[in-house]
């Protein structure tokens, strides 16, 4: 008898939207910091040469790359987690239904007495 649950496993749930947004914004800000560094290095490093052109290309191209990378979400589907219930051994000696309820319900009576 296999156990199937309609509830997803905690390990197969997607990343929370807030965590995903924070991760993407962090990537964007890091790339924009590199862009600012390219601008600064382009102006500061002398004599001007091929490296100045490289920094200029970085300063111009990095915003596009940053936006594209920041907008890519976690659309990649990871394999679904296997339920831990599937690893449990099956017990053939277990009854299919729970035991019959007793004919008379069990009554538990609690009496309190006041201390004198």
Q: C-alpha Rg, in Å?
A: 32 Å
Helicity range:
40-55%
Poorly predicted tracts of residues: none
Number of strands: 0
Strand/helix succession? HH
What is the CA–CA distance across the termini? Answer: 60 Å
Number of helices: 2
Average pLDDT, to the nearest integer?
A: 78
Question: How would you classify the helix and strand content by structural class?
Answer: mainly alpha
Q: What summary fits the major beta sheet?
A: none
Shape: elongated
SSE map:
Blueprint (H helix, E strand, L loop, with lengths): L16 H28 L5 H22 L45
Helix pairs in contact: 1-2
Could you characterize the architecture of this molecule?
The protein starts with 16 loop residues before the first helix and ends in a 45-residue tail after the last helix. It has a domain at 17-75. The longest helix is centred in the first third of the chain and has 28 residues, at 17-44. The protein has 116 residues and is an all-alpha fold. It is built from two helices and no strands.
Q: What attributes does this structure have?
A:
116 residues; mainly alpha; single chain
């Amino acid at each position: 008898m296999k156990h199937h649950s309609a509830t997803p496993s905690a390990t197969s749930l997607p990343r929370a939207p807030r965590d995903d947004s924070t991760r993407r914004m962090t990537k964007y800000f890091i790339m924009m910091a590199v862009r600012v560094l390219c601008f600064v290095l382009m102006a500061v490093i002398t004599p001007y040469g091929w490296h100045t052109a490289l920094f200029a290309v970085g300063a111009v191209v990095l915003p596009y790359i940053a936006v594209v990378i920041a907008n890519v979400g976690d659309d990649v589907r990871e394999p679904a987690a296997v339920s831990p219930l599937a690893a449990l051994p099956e017990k053939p000696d277990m009854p299919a239904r729970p035991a019959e309820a007793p004919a008379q319900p069990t009554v538990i009576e609690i009496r309190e007495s006041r201390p004198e």
